[in-house]
Design the sequence.
């Protein structure tokens, strides 16, 4: 944990301790983070919740908790207004087509609104996100053939990475590459392996995104163009990543983008003070991170924490939601 992360953590903790000491503890809200709604053959990153579990989870939340509309949630933070007990909102990252195909029908049926952050580079293409690519090649290719290709492409050195370490190594290797270099390497490996992206991993089409945006149960936000950590880019590159995403999505849905989430979303590691300043300058109403913390009326609206949801069975989901509100 570096100085920026320590400062952020202790600043939040100090605020909470101070308010407790004065007897002005306000009730927290939480932001839930989903990525995919699908039944996947492989899910090493544990990003997908089955449609059945998703319905059960949202139905439970509707009955037991105060699920806010997105603008209502932000209004509390903008105006320093205390949240009602058990308040929460639902968000999604990345822009997978299964959000529209399997997720939206559940939200419509239960009349619940969610906020969807879209990375724009893969809209209307068959391209996969890089983590889906490495998961598929690792699980489907002969490991010795894959190893030879990675050595030939100078991604690993022979003898330094054993076969059981390849997946984790590739994940770290690709995450902190700038998009143009990352995509070039993926294209080279794909050619050598004769690899084709899995249709199951596709992102939204333009038509799907437009229809998505017309639903009152979906609010569309942006999530950069290429889904690389903003921390790997300089000022101009970060600005371009954010603005390109905004412009491409706005051109499709014909609505302004008011909300943004940082790819991966850990302070300092994945975004930095430049990222925060840019989001303020661009004029987002709120920006979402991905670190484990509750939301209070005094929360920094350019670093809103979120709680990641896995494909938990119902009893486990209940346990985690209770933990999120009471840790």
Sequence:
């Amino acid at each position: 944990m570096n100085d920026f992360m320590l400062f952020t953590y202790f600043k939040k903790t100090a605020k909470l301790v101070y308010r407790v000491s004065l007897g002005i503890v306000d009730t927290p809200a939480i932001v839930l983070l989903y990525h995919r709604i699908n039944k996947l053959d492989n899910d090493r990153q544990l990003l997908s919740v089955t449609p059945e579990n998703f319905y059960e989870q949202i139905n439970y939340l509707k009955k037991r908790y105060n699920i806010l509309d997105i603008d209502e949630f932000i209004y509390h933070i903008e105006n320093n207004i205390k949240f009602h007990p058990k308040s929460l909102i639902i968000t999604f990252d990345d822009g997978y087509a299964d959000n529209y195909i399997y997720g939206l029908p559940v939200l419509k049926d239960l009349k619940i609104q969610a906020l969807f952050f879209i990375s724009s580079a893969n809209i209307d293409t068959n391209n996969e996100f890089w983590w889906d690519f490495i998961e598929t090649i690792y699980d489907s290719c002969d490991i010795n053939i894959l190893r030879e290709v990675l050595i030939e492409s100078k991604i690993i050195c022979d003898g330094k990475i054993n076969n059981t370490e390849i997946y984790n190594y590739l994940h770290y290797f690709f995450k902190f590459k700038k998009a143009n270099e990352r995509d070039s390497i993926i294209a080279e490996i794909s050619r050598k392996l004769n690899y084709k992206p899995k249709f199951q991993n596709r992102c939204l089409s333009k038509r799907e995104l437009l229809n998505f945006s017309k639903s009152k149960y979906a609010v569309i936000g942006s999530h950069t163009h290429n889904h690389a950590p903003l921390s790997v880019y300089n000022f101009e590159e970060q600005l371009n990543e954010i603005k390109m995403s905004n412009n491409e999505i706005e051109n499709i849905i014909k609505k302004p983008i008011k909300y943004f989430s940082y790819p991966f979303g850990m302070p300092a590691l994945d975004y930095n003070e430049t990222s925060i300043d840019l989001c303020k300058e661009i004029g987002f109403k709120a920006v979402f991170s991905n670190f484990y913390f509750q939301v209070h009326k005094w929360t920094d609206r350019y670093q809103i924490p979120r709680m990641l949801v896995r494909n938990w069975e119902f009893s486990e989901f209940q346990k985690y939601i209770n933990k999120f509100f009471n840790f």
